[in-house]
Amino acid sequence: MLERLGDARRAGRSVLAILAGSAINQDGKSNGIMAPNPGAQIAVLDSACKSARVDPSEIGYVEAHGTGTVLGDRIEAHALGKVYGRRRSAAAPLMLGSIKPNIGHLEGAAGIAGLIKAVLMVQRGFMVPSGGFAEPHPDIPFDELGLEVASEFREWPAVSGRPRRAGVSSFGVSGTNAHVIVEQVDLVGGDAVSGEEDGGGVGLVGGGADGGVVPWVISGKTASALAAQAGRLERYVRARPELDAVDVGYSLVTTRSVFDHRAVVVGDGRDELLAGLVGVADGRPDAAVICGGAVPTGKTVVVFPGQGAQWLGMGGQLYARYPVFAQAFDAVVDELDRHLRCRLREVMWGDDEHLLNTTEFAQPSLFAVEVALFRLLEFWGVRPDFVMGHSVGELTAAHVAGSLCLQDAAMLVAARGRLMQALPAGGAMVAVQASEDEVRPMLGHDVSIAAVNGPASVVISGARDTVNGIAGRLRERGRRIHALAVSHAFHSPLMEPMIAEFRAVAAEVTAGRPSIGVISNVTGQLVADDFASTDYWAGHIRAAVRFADSVRYANCAGANRFIEVGPSGGLTSLIEETLADAQIALVPTLRKDRPEPASVTAAAAHAFVWGAGLDWVAVFAGLNAKRVELPTYAFQHQKFWLAPARPVSDLAAEQTLPRMNHPWR
Known about the structure:
six-stranded mixed beta sheet; five-stranded parallel beta sheet; Malonyl-Coenzyme A Acyl Carrier Protein, domain 2; alpha/beta; phosphopantetheine; 25 helices; fatty acid synthase activity; 20 strands; Peroxisomal Thiolase, Chain A, domain 1; Alpha-Beta Plaits
């Protein structure tokens, strides 16, 4: 790729060399179509030096056109001597070479082949010999011209801080002459290019030295190609300890194609990352590796959990690490604080766990973390086809889908939690291992089904004595029973006293049609204009959460990737129970027992290997990462030579052409 140097550095390219100057001319009506013109060649060399603003003595090597004819080579050598060889000492002649003896004359591509060779030499600091060269041609006075043909490998150090420079010639058969000068990238800081600019300073780690996580993304057309690619990368990086883990990760996602067989190694240092590559190569990936086969036709659902998922300190590490998360979190909390009696940050990141777990603060806290986490994933390129929420999580879904503005959503969330908290304490909620059909006949006027979370996972809620009685009868039938630690009996008749006041708050809200499909946990169907109805949000408090129906709807609509965007992974097990026979990816984004940056990065990687879109450049943004050279694709070579049905007879062999050691055999 040819690009302006400043643009290349801003874009994070790995700059191989600088095209310092160039010139082109035509010898016109002179010596005939097959005879080079010495004056024209001298002129193009001199013009290229002036274009590069360098003295000819600063050129250390020239990749010659090298016609291979007595006349052409002699004329070219004299032109080089006239421009480059003069004023050179016998101990420091201009080195010459040509790639044609190695690969033949590529005609229209001859010049670019020589340019590639020259770029590699100035970049890597050595000169390579011209193939097949044995001794100088007697008709060319190399010593007098200040020239020497490169006949062996030799180091090419920069002299006195001056970059290495090489000239490259390409002469057309009709008299067109071209010459370019390439030079080594700046010796100091020239290749320390920064990553893609985004203005947000969002990234995973700061230079790989702060203990943050780094993803290494690899892929292959087949499972065996993926394993081979992992092995090739591991050997290459292990042999080069100077390579930075962030640079390797950034280069993998900016310079490599992505195929369906994928693996992402997530680690906080070289040793862990290299060990993960070994696991992929050996077919034994460890916990640091996320592997999968992309399903491009599948759809993605983002699921927001409800009350009970919160924990003290949630979101704090993400706030410190990712500016996009922090900006979104600040905006949400600023709106919520207008309706709360305490500053939400102090509750969430303080030391009073009981206060956080009160409904008044638990629901706003979850809303703040879920919205900010969604914005971070959105910045990273995650684009869900559907969103849905469990209980209060549906308010988050309505907001991120564009139906509720932030001001209205924050007002509803805060009012919902405050009014529920103000209800008299009491009631009970019990999760039972039973179907809705088995439980419903047992209900009374003061008990409801609060949630249908799976085919055999129901939550009942209401008056404590009645709930405990139903639970006891189910226990006698051998059903598992689990009492939930809650302050109130949510989604039950005990919520009735606060509904009228909440309805009045909801009447102040203006809701539009969502821009992302929202699956209602009241109906288990796709939302149309439901959110615009005050009755919907009032009924939402009392109605059962039909989570299993919502999950089935999403799966029937083609969803096979479920990302739980919240502080826990509790909903993923419920989804797994509901879709036990389906091939799906279940992706929790955060877990209380794992560092948040590692958890969210692994979640993004998990969605990616299953085919979700992800902008890895955004993941690496703001890291001052640069592209570095990495091994190329591990092609899985196969031979397809046709084997004869029977051996060729000696007589037949004698009648054929003599055997040759052809390179294609």
